[in-house]
Each structure stands twice: as C-alpha cells, then as structure tokens.
Design brief:
The complex is a heterotrimer of chains A (101), B (176) and C (837).
Chain A (H helix, E strand, L loop, with lengths): L2 E15 L30 E3 L5 E3 H10 L33
Antiparallel strand pairs in A: 2-3
Chain B lengths: L2 H12 L11 H16 L5 E5 L6 E7 L10 E7 L10 E4 L29 H13 L9 H6 L4 H11 L9
Antiparallel strand pairs in B: 1-2, 2-3, 3-4
Chain C lengths: L1 H20 L14 H12 L3 H19 L1 H13 L8 H10 L11 H35 L5 H23 L3 H29 L12 H7 L10 H16 L3 H26 L6 H8 L2 H9 L3 H29 L1 H6 L5 H13 L3 H15 L7 H18 L6 H14 L3 H10 L14 H5 L14 H13 L3 H6 L5 H4 L10 H7 L4 H19 L5 H14 L5 H22 L9 H4 L6 E6 L16 H18 L3 E17 L2 E7 L1 H12 L2 E3 H8 L3 H13 L3 E4 L8 E4 L28 H6 L2 H11 L1 E3 H11 L9 H13 L3 E4 L2 E4 L2
Antiparallel strand pairs in C: 2-3, 4-6, 5-6, 7-9, 8-9
Helix pairs in contact in C: 1-2, 1-3, 2-6, 3-6, 3-7, 4-6, 6-7, 6-10, 8-11, 11-13, 11-14, 12-14, 14-16, 17-19, 18-19, 19-22, 20-26, 26-28, 28-30, 31-33, 32-33
Classes of the chains: A mainly beta (101), B alpha+beta (176), C mainly alpha (837).
C-alpha cells in the first residue's frame, strides 16, 4: 500500500527584522523595520546601525545628527559615537528558524 | 481672558514670520505626528501637549507643578515652536503662564541646558516638558534669569512660595 | 293707461310670434328688416315710455322660444349619445388597441357619416335659432332705444346688453338638461372618430409610399403648402368641411370651451398612444425628433380644421404647435423616466433613449419627477437584501454614467445616488467588491460579479487631490437628500451648474468620475486604500511565486489616482516581492559549507523551498493562525533562514509558517494526484506518510493548533477522499486515518486551491468602540486648551488624528462627546467642552 507525499515546491512566507527590538529609532521615532522620514523603502535602503554604545539608529538619522553637531556623540548617552561593525552571519544562529511566537 | 485662549490664538499669527520655512517639512511632520501619537497613548505624568492650531510646528504644552514643591497645584501653559530642523535643533520653548522661578524670566524665556547646547535628537516634547517640570522643583541657581527668585530659593521659603502664587495667573488648584 | 297696456300686449304678442317663427333664415337674419307690425309695436312701446321693460320681456320671450326650437338639437344629442354609447365607457387602453388594429371595422362609439350629418344639421338649426333670435332681439332693443330718448343710463345699458345676454342664456339652453358632460363625451367621441379617420388615411398614404418618412414623420414638409384647402389631406373634401362646420357651430353656440377641452384631450391621447407604443418598442434608437415631427403633421392638420379659420385661427394654431411640442417633450420625457431604471441597466445600449430624455429635460421641468421616480425605482428594485453587492455597484456605476450623460452639470446625481450610497455603506462587502472590480482583470470580471472597472483606472481625468477635500460622504448625502426635497427645477434650467447640495460631493470631481464617486461613498480614500492593500496582500501571498506584473500596473494607475504617498505601503509590498525573488536566488546559491552551520543542517536540501519575505510594517496584519511545521520542513526553514542571515546580517527572518502555498504529488494506492494547498494542509498529509492514523488530539498537539482548527483543515482531505475519520464510542474527538486508495469523497468539495487563503472578516464594529481611539486626542486637546467647541474638536481631530484616520461626522463626534459628558468625563457648558478634573 502506498501513501507517499512528495513535496514539489514549498513556498513559505517570512518577515524580516533588523533584530533591533520592537523599538523605534530614537531620532526619527519611526520603527527600525520601517523607513526614516526621507527613506522610501525599508530594509536594504534604510539600514540600521549600532554604535559601540549599543544604541541603534537608522543610518540616515545618525549621519544627519552627527553632521549637525560639532562633537560626534550618541544622542542617547552622549558617549563618543563610533559605528559598531556589522554582526557576522550565523552568530546568533540558534535563534533562527523559530516559528513566530 | 484665560491663558489657553491666548496661546491657542497666537500660533496662527506666529506662522507668518517664518514663511521661509523649507518646503521639505515632511520628515519633521512625521516625527511630530509620531510624538503626538505617543503622547496620546501615554497621558498622565503631569505633562501634556497638543498642536496649537493648523500646523504641527506650534504646540501648546501643559505642566502641573510637582507635589511637595512651591509649584504644587499650579498648572503652567507653555508654547513650543519647532523648526524644520527638528529634531536636530531644539524647539523654542516659553512659559505662557507667568512663572516665578530662578531660570525663567518675565517674558517666559527658560534657561535650560537641554534646550540649548545639551540638546539631543533623542529628546522629545515629552522629555522637554518633563525636564521643565523637574526644573521647577530643582532650579539651577548658578545661572539665573530671575535674580530675585534665585536669591530667595532655599533662603526664604515662605516668601518664595508667596511670590510663586502671586505671579501665577493660571487656573487655581482644585478645591482652593 | 289702458292704451299703454294695449300697446304693451300688442308688442309682446308680435315679438313672441316673430321669435318663435324664426324671423328669417338663421345666420343671415341680422340683415333682414324687422316686420312692419313689430316695428310699429316697438315704436308704440317706446312712445308709451315702457322702454325699460322691454329688455327683460324680450329676454324671457326669446329664451322661451329658443327652448322650443332647441328640441330638435336635444333629441339629436340624446340619440347620438345612445348610438355611440357603446364607446362611452371605452377607456384609453381600448382605444389604443383600436387604433393599433387599423381600419377594419368601425369600433363601437364611432361616428358614421350619417351621425355626423345629423349632428351638423342639429347644430346648424340651433345656430340659426340663436342667431335669428339674437338678431331680432338686438334690432328691437335698438329701435326702442332710438325711439325713447329719455331713458336713464341703467335702462340704456340694459337694452344694449339684451342681445349678448341672450346669447349667454342661449348657450346654457344649448347645453340643456343633459348637461355639459354629455356634450363633452359626445364631442370627445366625435373628434376622436374624425382624428382616427385622418390618421388612418395618413398611414395608408405613407404605406403607399406617397410620403416619405420613418413612420412618424408624415410629410412635415407638405404641411406648409397644405394651406386652407383640403387637397393635401388626402381626405374627401367633406371630411374637412363637416369637421370645420361642426367646430364653427359649436363656437357660435358658446360651447367653445367644451369643444376645445374635447379635441385637446383627443389630440393629446392620440399623440400619447403613438409615443407609448413607440417608446415600448425601442430604447436603442431615438424617437424624439420623429415624435416632434409627427406632432406637427396629423394632429396639427386636424387642429387646423377645428380651430377658427383666418388670422385668429393662425395664432391659435401657432400656439397649439408650441403646445404639442411641449406635450411631446413632456410625454417622451415621462415615458423615458418611467423606464429609467431599465435604461440604466441596458447602458450603454440605451444611449439613444437617454439622449431623448436629456433633450426633454432641457425643454421641460421634469427634473423633480426624474429624481423622485428613479430613486423610488432604485430603492424598490435594487436596494434590497436579494441584490448582490456587485450588481448594486454595477448599477450605481451605470447610473453615474447615464446621469452624467443626462445632466453634465451633475445636479441630478447626488439626490438620486444618496440612498444607494447610504445602502452600500451598510453592506460590509461593498468596499471589497469595489476594489475587486477596480483591480480585476477584464477576463476575471466576466463571471457575473459585475464588469471590471479596471479600465476606469486609466481614466485619469480626476486627480488624486479631489479626494483630499475633507468632505464627509454621509453628510453630503444627507445634504443631497434635503436638496432633493425642495428641488426647484427652474434653477437647473436656468443654470447648468450643480445644485448647492451636490456641489460639495461628487461635483468636485465631476459626476462622471466613477472612481471618485465610489471611493466617496466612504468619505475617505484611506479606508479604500486599506482594503486594496489587504486584497493585494491576499493575492501576493497566495501566489506561491513572485510574478506581479499586473499588480504593478494596477498600482501605477492607482498612484495616478490617489497620489503616491497614500500607496507607499502597497509599493513596498510589491517591491518586497521583487526583492524576495532576488534574495531567494541568492539564498539558494549560498553553499552549505560557506556558513558556520551546524553539521546536521548542512545536509538539508532547500531546493524545493522558496520564500516571500515581507516588510511586515508595510503589510496589513498578516494571518495570525500559526502552527509548528513538521521537523523536515522546520529544518529546511531554519537552513534557509541561516543562509539569509549570512547574506543580510544583522537582519533575520521570522517565519509565518501558516502562510504560503505548497504544491505536492500524492501517491495513494496506484494513483498519483497533484495538489496545491496551504502549508498546514500539506503538513497534515505529511504526518500520515509515516503513520496511518492519528487521534485528533495528538495530531492537533503535534502542530500546536486547537482540534477544531485541525478539523477545519482536515475536512479538505476527507472531501478529497485522501483521509477518513472514525469515532470510537464515548470519545469526544475522532481519529483520522489515511485511505489506502483514493475514495470518492463525501462531498465533491471545492477546488484544489481550497484553503489557501481563508480570509475572515473582522468582528462587527461598535460605534463607540470605534470612537474610543480618539478619546486620548480629545482629552489631550482639552488638557491644553481648557475649553473647546464641538467644531474645533472635530477639525483638530481631522487634522491630527491619523492612526486610524479620523473619518467621523460632526454628528457622530457630538454623540460621542455627549456620551463622555454623561459619563462625567467631560463637561459641556454653552457649547464648550471641558475636561473634568
């Protein structure tokens, strides 16, 4: 007796996230997974960056803040701003693949 | 004539002088709209604010004097005017209700570092109003705008309180 | 005194004799001289100073004499009435048929030539009697007046007025005891009979090809040279002669009003019959021009005989020509209005009929009637639970187009559309229907769900800005309704600009901008766009692929309509599809060894897995029903996510396991079958691959879904004959088992796409719950402004509350504020609302 299921194509749906928490950018108050006010598309076009102080902002927003100030400081903690290097893929691998809560 | 009506009416006129406002105000509007939503979602805390007229660039703020301070029971109205560079530049904030305070002059101007050199793009209407609320309770007597108030602060509590009440023209505390 | 009395008696006797005798032959009597004895008697009366008594006496005598001489007329009248009585009760409907049937038999109630001759003769006699008596009376009075110089002004006036007074009495006598109604009925039948003869001959001549025209035009050109002769009529000369005579006698006898009423009714009924027959036949060709032409042929020829000849007659005829023209406009207009609902259904085939109607409207004042009648038809025939929403919308769209044609000013549409719009607002599926119709393929639209409106999108005459005006649909509709109540058509005639009530709504974008009208039902484009996005999301996620060219084209059109900003979300959604396609290709090309994956995962082949990766914030709320996929799928998903992360860090994926689509081959028994199903459906099937049966509870637990959800999904496989269920006695839940061979399912359930997307409607909205979202804004305002009036709060909400966008009416807000006042949250004094501390 055969009862065999052969999956030919599994088209799944996922959402992406910057993994910066549910929070909003402290400068533009728009969600990280959205776009800053002058960005048109989220994601690749509206990257999120972290300072070494661990605070995150939209790249466009922090750049504008830094260029409007004499001193390069984090708007949250006033620590000297330095960009943190992007996380290497797979580091937080164990979190992946989980179904949405 | 109450203060609210005055402050509510002023922005309409106030809109004219800076007509040179840059065209691209969308980003500022978006952020202010977000702040308004946030404020509406979490009312309380003794501070409140709402756009004053047709534009999101002029707001009316309200601060309740903190309990156990000379300002207890007083409700102060403030005006906040934003520029198109907000939040990269601080808004202009003034008391509309007369306020007897070391860091507030007779025109309502406020001397507060976060509105000047200590401004941060991460600040908001709410943090501004909360800072001013703290300033009421905890003046900075080293750089006074009102020398008389600065002198009385901590030296003659009773007279300080009396002058605060004398200057105050807003709604009287409930039950008073 | 005795001689005066004798003189008076002599005069009375002579005059009575003369009046009774007829004193000459009727119409020419005025020229005849008075008999000598009567002249002498009159002089005697005058000499005796009895002049003041003359007029009264003569009037009495003449009336008495006339009564006797009218016996013949009244006898004839009675006889004719009886003879034609068969037709006395015939209604217009019967007449209509007679007319249509043609000329075979003289129907009951019609006039034979003999009857006509009898009528003419009796009328002529009566005329003669009246004329001769009146003439005699006049002469006598004149003579007395001349003979007795010393009369007072009142007496002189009475003598002068005697003859006219007699004439007035005479017409009363002519009408007689049978009364005006009998005359009216008889004359109606007479005129009808005559007109029918004329019309029949005209039709026969037309058939014989003597005249050119399309059936209604009976030689309008010929009318001009017809002149006074009857040669052009095609009738024997007697037809016109006798008609003309009868009409003239009636005028002489003072029966002009009764006569005119009768022939007017006959002519109008005749025209109307023609028009009704014609209008019922065809809506796809115009009839107005032909009808107008016809009104100047047969009916006018008939009237020419009936109206006085000469200059006065020509003026009357000109007036009648105008009157008939107006009658045609009104009748054709009314006929078209009565069938307007059907004309709209048949749009655009009914265009000619609507063009007729348009012309009629501009020549009459039928606007109010149109609005009332069409609204009634819409309410009766369309706005009931039995009508499909798509049909209502389709008919509304046709109505918009039809009324745009009728009334480019757009004044008619708002009052007519108001009930439709109010009704559609109550239909919860209306928005969805409109969006479907707007975005559906032309091919897709052919399934009876109403034609596609997709083409409308390309029609960019309206700009996006048109929707940004802060009108409220419902309020404007109420205004339109009120406007309709006190509609003054004159304003429309005089001024083609929209009526004040309608201007605020559809008027802005032009009545013909169908999309503006449809979107305007809801007062805000945001609601509409939200619905579009939710449908777009359904479509895109159900695809199982990345193709969205058509959706892109639709989006471009919508952007032209509604402005780019409001469709930003939809744009991101479509870009997500394009990005997903690219990312998917990249993910697939990441070698397993290139990432620090755990060894177990590196073996997983993800070749059959593809993904749509969405920017969650820009999509409508995604389906929340989730489940735990089978391990083999879970490992594919995590491998895919890991590869994604290696490309896109620090971004990562969050799977929505319930969304998407799976195509699979099922080998069961000796059969192979292909399915495209939802992930949960596929997962269920996979569970049976390794184990022939599952208790419901266990299977539900495996997927982390409630048993009833599982059951809903599994029904699909049961219907397909792939799975079966059994229930042990006492067990609350069944056990599912796989079938060894494909069974014919208990129900030939659905297609194989079933269950891909099961959209569930949101719960019913409670009005106040709806408003509650704005409460913080209201409180916020009142905290910072002490006190505000209703309209100010309304405006500020419109301005600043945009999530959800504020779309309530002033009335709704007022009701909500009253509720807050009742709850003692606010206070209201002198129209100012305050926060209660």
């Amino acid at each position: 007796m055969t009862f065999d299921v052969k999956i030919k194509k599994w088209h799944a749906v996922a959402s992406w996230t910057w993994n910066a928490g549910d929070d909003v950018c402290g400068i533009c108050r728009m969600p990280f997974d959205g776009c800053p006010p002058d960005g048109k598309f989220p994601g690749d076009d509206s990257p999120v960056v972290w300072g070494i102080c661990t605070h995150a902002f939209h790249l466009q927003c922090i750049n504008r803040w830094l260029s409007s100030q004499a001193e390069q400081k984090c708007p949250f903690c006033r620590r000297q701003w330095e960009f943190k290097q992007a996380v290497v893929g797979g580091e937080e691998d164990s979190e992946d693949g989980a179904a949405a809560p | 004539m109450n203060t609210a009506a005055r402050t509510a009416a002023s922005p309409a006129k106030g809109g004219a002088p800076d007509a040179a406002r840059p065209v691209d105000t969308g980003a500022v509007t978006k952020r202010l709209q977000q702040e308004l939503m946030g404020l509406m979602a979490s009312s309380g805390d003794g501070v409140s604010a709402f756009p004053a007229g047709d534009s999101l660039f002029d707001w009316v703020g309200t601060i309740n004097g903190a309990d156990a301070t000379a300002y207890e029971g007083c409700t102060y109205r403030l005006s906040l005017r934003f520029t198109s560079e907000y939040p990269f530049k601080a808004p202009a904030v003034r008391f509309e209700t007369p306020c007897f305070h070391p860091n507030v002059d007779t025109y309502g101007n406020i001397c507060l570092d976060i509105l000047k050199d200590k401004w941060s793009a991460a600040y908001s209407v709410k943090t501004i109003l909360q800072s001013i609320q703290s300033l009421l309770a905890d003046p900075n007597v080293d750089s006074p705008l009102n020398a008389h108030a600065a002198k009385l602060w901590g030296a003659n509590d009773a007279e300080y309180r009396a002058l605060v009440q004398k200057a105050y023209t807003g709604p009287k505390p409930a039950g008073a | 005194m005795a001689s005066a009395a004798a003189t008076w008696l002599q005069f009375a006797k002579c005059s009575a004799t003369a009046l009774a005798g007829g004193g000459g032959d009727g119409l020419g009597a005025a020229a005849t001289a008075l008999p000598a004895d009567l002249a002498t008697a009159a002089d005697g009366v005058a000499a005796a100073g009895l002049g003041p008594l003359v007029s009264q006496q003569l009037l009495a005598a003449a009336t008495a004499a006339l009564q006797a001489r009218l016996e013949h007329l009244h006898a004839t009248l009675s006889q004719l009435c009886n003879e034609t009585a068969g037709g006395a009760d015939s209604s217009d409907d019967e007449e209509e048929e007679e007319e249509e049937e043609g000329a075979d038999d003289e129907p009951a109630g019609s006039f034979t030539p003999e009857m006509e001759a009898a009528l003419a003769e009796a009328l002529r006699d009566a005329c003669s009697a009246v004329e001769s008596s009146a003439a005699l009376l006049g002469q006598l009075c004149e003579r007395v007046l001349r003979a007795q110089a010393a009369l007072g002004p009142a007496d002189r006036a009475a003598l002068l007025a005697a003859a006219p007074r007699f004439r007035r009495h005479a017409s009363t006598e002519v009408v007689g005891q049978q009364g005006g109604a009998a005359w009216a009925a008889l004359l109606h039948r007479y005129y009808r009979s005559k007109l029918r003869q004329l019309s029949r001959v005209a039709a026969a001549r037309l058939e014989a090809g003597e005249e050119e025209g399309d059936g209604m035009v009976e030689g309008e050109a010929e009318w001009g040279r017809d002149g006074g002769s009857c040669g052009g009529l095609g009738m024997e000369p007697g037809w016109a002669r006798s008609l003309q005579d009868v009409a003239a006698y009636l005028r002489l006898l003072g029966l002009e009003d009764i006569s005119e009423e009768a022939f007017a009714a006959v002519v109008c009924a005749h025209l109307r019959r023609r028009l009704v027959a014609r209008a019922a036949r065809a809506a796809d060709e115009r009839m107005l021009a032909a009808a107008l032409a016809y009104s100047t042929s047969t009916p006018l020829r008939f009237l020419q005989r009936v109206l006085p000849q000469g200059v006065a007659g020509e003026a009357a005829l000109a007036a009648w020509r105008a009157r008939l023209g107006y009658y045609v406009y009104e009748a054709v207009g009314a006929l078209r209005i009565d069938r307007l609902f059907d004309l709209v259904v048949d749009w655009p085939d009914s265009l000619p009929a609507l063009e007729d109607l348009k012309e009629c409207l501009s020549n009459t004042s039928l606007h109010r009637r149109l609005v009332a009648s069409f609204r009634r038809a819409l309410v009766d025939r369309l706005l009931h639970p039995g009508a499909a929403t798509a049909d209502i919308i389709q008919q509304y769209v046709s109505a918009i187009r039809a009324l745009e044609k009728l009334d480019p000013g757009g004044a008619l549409l708002p009052p007519v559309a108001a009930p439709v719009r109010a009704y559609l607002r109550q239909r919860r599926d209306a928005i969805r229907c409109i969006v479907t119709m707007l975005t559906a393929d032309e091919e897709e639209g052919g399934d009876g769900a109403g034609a596609s409106l997709h083409a409308e999108l390309g029609n960019t005459e309206g700009t996006g800005e048109a929707y940004d005006s802060d009108f409220e649909g419902a309020e404007a509709d109420v205004a339109a309704l009120r406007e309709a109540e006190r509609w003054e058509p004159e304003t429309v005639d005089a001024d083609p600009s929209p009526a004040p009530g309608g201007a605020s709504e559809g008027g802005a974008a032009g009545g013909g901008d169908v999309i503006a009208q449809l979107v305007g039902i809801y007062g805000s484009k945001e609601l509409f766009i939200n619905e579009y996005r939710s449908m777009l999301a359904d479509r895109l996620l159900a695809k199982g692929g990345y193709e969205c060219d058509r959706e892109l084209r639709t989006l471009e059109l919508l952007k032209l309509r509604f402005g780019e900003a409001s469709l930003h979300g939809a744009e991101v959604m479509l870009k997500d599809l394009a990005d997903s396609k690219r990312v998917n290709a990249n993910v697939q090309s990441v070698p397993n060894t290139a990432t620090p994956l755990r060894r177990r995962r590196s073996l997983v082949d993800i070749g059959c897995l593809s993904a749509t990766i969405v920017s969650q914030l820009f999509w409508p709320q995604l389906q929340t029903e989730e489940f735990t996929p089978p391990p083999e799928v879970a490992s594919m998903l995590s491998t895919y996510a890991a590869k994604y992360r290696s490309l896109k860090a620090p971004r990562k994926l969050v799977w929505r396991p319930a969304l998407g689509s799976v195509s699979l081959d099922l080998f069961i028994g000796d059969q192979e079958k292909e399915f495209t199903v939802s992930p949960l459906h596929a997962s269920i099937l996979m569970a049976f691959q390794h184990r022939p049966e599952w208790p419901a509870a266990e299977l539900a637990e495996r997927f982390g879904v409630p048993p009833d959800v599982l059951r809903r999904k599994i029904v699909f496989w049961i219907n397909q004959g792939v799975l079966g269920e059994s229930r042990a006695a006492g067990q609350p839940l069944p056990t599912y088992h796989r079938n060894e061979t494909l069974q014919s399912g208990p129900a030939a359930g659905g297609g194989e796409q079933e269950g891909l997307m099961e959209m569930e409607e949101g719960g019913a909205k409670d009005e106040h719950a709806d408003m509650a979202g704005y409460e913080p804004f209201i409180v916020g305002m009142l905290t910072n402004f002490d006190a505000l009036p209703l309209d100010r709060i309304h405006n500020m909400l419109k301005m600043f509350a945009n999530d959800p966008p504020y779309d309530k009416s002033l009335e709704q807000l007022g009701a909500y504020l009253s509720a807050l006042v009742a709850e003692e949250r606010l206070s209201c004094e002198g129209g100012l609302y305050r926060k209660r501390s």
